[in-house]
Design goal:
A 7-stranded mixed β-sheet has the order 8-7-9-10-11-12-13, sandwiched between helices. Strands 2-1-3-4 form a 4-stranded parallel β-sheet, sandwiched between helices. It contains 17 helices and 23 strands. Strand 22, helix 16 and strand 23 form a beta-alpha-beta unit. The radius of gyration is 22 Å and the shape is globular. It is α/β, with parallel strands linked by helices and 482 residues long. It has 2 domains: 365 residues, 3-Layer(aba) Sandwich (Rossmann fold), CATH 3.40.50; 94 residues, ANL, C-terminal domain (GMP Synthetase, Chain A, domain 3). The mean pLDDT is 93.
Length: 482
């Protein structure tokens, strides 16, 4: 559906998928080739996902906010053969394709896309569970993004995990894609298609709380994925406008910290319609979960946690030697199960390190309580989560260090009531320098959402005896008004 307008039933969708797969074959794509999706949320996202898989291809859904230079790296790393875009992103994608070296770019609103549906249907290409299906690019601590290799088996396991631990889906229910379909919301296409439910894209193709509340009365049993920042905006509007929520079934939240006071307020204003998930690209949406039933009578300790491990997913708190720690002790969160990635594309060293001993090393620090609830304490990789988007300081630091006037820099996340965290850059300058120059420099190299919201200029950075920057000290100084 597009807004309240129904586009296709499942029979029509299946026909379009088979015809589109045939069109992909006529473009010269062969089983195993990579197809990038650089698109805002549009209905074509759904049919392209399944057409690629029908044809035995690998999809590369890409964050639509990325800079063309970042797109070019991904195109090159994956050897992308074709890229589908929405018109607003066509220019940047074409620039990236040219830089990466040959990649067919097709606007889904163009006659070229329509012609792909004109020919014969493609036969379904059979794939094994361990065949690559989805390449998800996550920012890396080295400054370059890493391609998380998700197999068809991984996607099936994450789909079944939704049914077991997140929520029930009936035929005719709806999932509303107000969050990016290149990320978590897109993964929820799969369980809803598996149950014959309806995928709905807002007319705005974006997150607009008023539009969402206007849509609800026209839909049935609506679920949606939302970052905590999005939940807060929904609650703010609901509190003042008292919308009709009778058709809102579930809001699945995740992608960043949700404070206890905020989820308490959300439940007070909007009712017990919330489920929480904790995951990362390497185990997509599937490390721990807390269902609506668990929210109903949850105490503050439970609400401050990220829930219980999914059925079939092993989660361990380990020390520096990967030895299990007892209840209450803080260590790294390790994960094992069919949801965990096959590894990183073209990066065997990172794969070996991250999957050492058969466990996914998440880089997140946490502890279990006596009831089995996992509470996150810190992030050993210094990941910043702002508005539900992952930002790695090293990536931003490396861009800032290419500015000739920057001698040293350290990037940290600082708590923010609206965004969860904001990016702050602590800069040692070689000479005269202002924030506007650095902001422009960042916008030339990385996505807008990754750039610092604030720049602090200092004479030196605090370091330990080995020369490592003391980010904990920096966070404290910034909190105290540095």
């Amino acid at each position: 559906m597009l807004g309240s307008r129904s586009l296709y039933d499942y029979a029509t969708l299946a026909d379009r998928v088979a015809r589109l797969a045939g069109g992909l074959n006529r473009l010269g794509l062969a089983s195993g080739d990579r197809v990038a999706l650089v698109m805002k949320n549009v209905p074509e996202y759904v049919e392209l996902l399944f057409a690629c898989w029908h044809a035995g291809l690998v999809v590369v859904p890409i964050n639509a906010k990325l800079h063309p230079k970042e797109l070019a790296f991904i195109f090159g790393d994956t050897a992308t053969k074709a890229c589908f875009v929405t018109a607003d992103l066509a220019e940047g994608a074409a620039q990236a394709a040219q830089e990466a070296g040959a990649c067919r770019v097709v606007d889904v609103a163009s006659p070229d896309y329509a012609h792909l549906l004109d020919g014969e249907k493609s036969a379904l290409v059979t794939r094994r569970a361990d065949d690559l299906a989805w390449l998800f690019y996550t920012s890396g601590t080295t400054g370059k993004p890493k391609g998380v290799m998700l197999s068809h088996g991984n996607l099936l396991a994450s789909t079944l995990a939704y049914f077991s631990d997140v929520d029930h889906i009936d035929a005719g229910d709806c999932v509303l894609h107000a969050a990016p379909m290149s990320h978590g919301s897109g993964l929820y296409i799969l369980p809803h298609v598996a149950k014959g439910a309806c995928n709905v894209v807002p007319e705005s193709a974006a997150f607009e709380p008023a539009e969402i509340f206007d849509l609800l009365p026209t839909l049935k049993n609506v679920s949606m994925f939302a970052a905590p920042t999005m939940v807060k905006r929904l609650v703010d509007l609901a509190e003042t406008s008292a919308p009709d929520l009778s058709n809102l079934k579930t809001i699945v939240y995740g992608g960043g910290p949700m404070y206890v006071a905020d989820i308490r307020r959300a439940m007070r204003v909007m009712g017990n319609r919330f489920a929480q998930i904790f995951g990362q690209g390497e185990s997509p949406m599937t490390i721990t979960a807390m269902s609506k039933a668990l929210h109903e009578n949850a105490d503050d300790t439970m609400l401050a946690s990220v829930g219980l491990p999914y059925v079939g997913v092993d989660v361990m708190i380990a020390d520096g030697e990967d030895r299990p720690l007892p209840v209450g002790e803080i260590g790294e969160v390790l994960v094992r199960g069919d949801t965990v990635m096959a590894g990183y594309l073209n990066n065997p060293d990172a794969t070996a390190k991250t999957l050492a001993g058969g466990w996914l090393h998440t880089g997140d620090m946490g502890s279990f309580d006596e009831r089995g609830f996992l509470t996150l304490k810190d992030r050993s990789k210094d990941l910043i989560i702002s508005g539900g988007s992952n930002i790695y300081p090293r990536e931003v630091e490396e861009v800032l260090l290419t500015h000739p006037a920057v001698a040293e820099v350290s990037v940290i996340g600082v708590p923010d009531p609206e965004w969860g965290e904001i990016v702050v850059a602590i800069v040692v300058a070689r000479g005269p320098l202002d924030a506007s120059a650095l902001d422009a420099h960042c916008l030339d190299h990385i996505a807008r959402f990754k750039r610092p919201k604030r720049y602090v200029f200092v004479e030196s950075l605090p370091k330990n005896a080995t020369g490592k920057v003391l980010k904990t000290e920096l966070r404290k100084s910034v909190a105290e008004g540095l």
